[in-house]
Amino acid sequence: MRDREPSLVGRWFRALGLLVLILVAIVAVALAFFPFERLAPALAAQIERETRVETRIATLGVRLGARGPVLEARDVSLRWPTGETLALDALTATPAELGAWLRGVQSAHVTADARFGSFEGEVSREFVRGDFTRFDFSQLPSTWFGVRGSPLAGAVDAHVDLTRLAEQWSGTVRLEGGEGSLALPGSPIAIPYERLDAAVRLDELGTLQIESLALAGPMIVASAEGEVAAGYAGPATGEIAIDAEIERMDPALLPALTEYGVVLDANGAGRISISGTPEQIQIR
Predict the structure, then answer these.
(1) Sign of the CA dihedral with 31 first, then 35, 39, and 40 last
(2) SS3 helix, strand, coil % of the chain, rounded to 5?
(3) Phi-psi region of 143 (alpha: psi -120 to 50; beta: other; left: phi over 0)
(4) Which terminal residue of the chain has fewer beta carbons within 10 Å of its beta carbon, N or C?
(5) Alpha helices, DSSP H only, in the chain?
(6) pTM of the predicted model, to two decimals?
């Protein structure tokens, strides 16, 4: 019996499939052999124009991925006009949704790895949503945190969901960490902790709302909530209104509170209120 020939529609679909495979192969070969490293200076210059941060990219490449073209950069160096520098070991970006890019909504799925931690999430001009893993604030430029440097040392995991409207960022951040230390204002030593959990929200007015903060370690067990208002220097630089509940504190830390006139009970427990501003904190 004679085999039935494929229908006209079937032949068209087969031809279309072969054409797509040929196009994919051509693009793959082009991506593999195109000298993208020559584009690195141009991309760095574009980043500098957008952010006013001096940028250097050692190597740059593009490959095909499941989401579409994947941009890969390695050994990326960022330098601010004030002298602070950051180095990224590797960074990749691919369209978060290819259809959205075609409609002009440019968001990218980004991964980044550096000495101070890693990030994976979705990024655009208007929002940042994703997860930081093993992020260590003490590895960032110390001048970002003032004269004393970062008050927090130790790796934390964080989930961020931030949106920008009229140059103002707002949204939520959740932190989880262990085996670190926290330097409190007025304390001569950094307090070691075994567990840190925090949930904060930055509103459209620049007020940082501390929805919950819990700290547990060999020298202190405490929790806090409150807010830091916006100030002349920007978000969360104004008036502080935070209430803390101390369940237990090591006697070695009590002199730091006694200096402010705070007295805890014999077990190192009690409530304290923190006010003032980040530049001049008041504890009572």
Answers:
(1) positive
(2) 20, 50, 30
(3) alpha
(4) N
(5) 8-33, 40-51, 98-102, 254-258
(6) 0.79
